[in-house]
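Deliverable D4.2, example record:
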Amino acid sequence: MSATTQEAAPAARVRRTRLADDRRTLDDAIADAVRQKLSFLLFFIFEQLGLPRPLIQSLIFLKLDVAGHSTLYVARTGERHFWQQPWPSAALMWATIATMIVGTLVAVYGVFMEPIGWKYAGIIWAYALAWFVFNDFLKVAVYRIMNRSHWLLGGAQSHEQTTT
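Output generated by the structure prediction step:
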């Protein structure tokens, strides 16, 4: 193996790693944009229903808590669905579950905010979880399109294929 070939291999590996990092940054940006748009949509719906502003603020708090934590599971898996291996660590699972439970209790009973009750909490959980599943399927579809067209990695293979 020539010296130029030996030097080219690490450079190609670094380039693939940087592209994979750019891809993850894009994932985070898309997830943030979607989360913000859905929060404004929910705010608009609640306003149209005539709910008081303090109650809407508590509902949005719970939505951001539940949806924000569930976004971690969608964003961490890349090209795979959130239920496929590798699974998240126990520390991540317990931390997100605990904070979603605490956030739900805070919103339901109105700790430093307007209480929303269990009915509204259930509606918010259903809304957030439905979008969580939808976003996961959308993410996998977009990754498949990007990999098929070699769009984001500039013709390189997918991140999982380049790191194995």
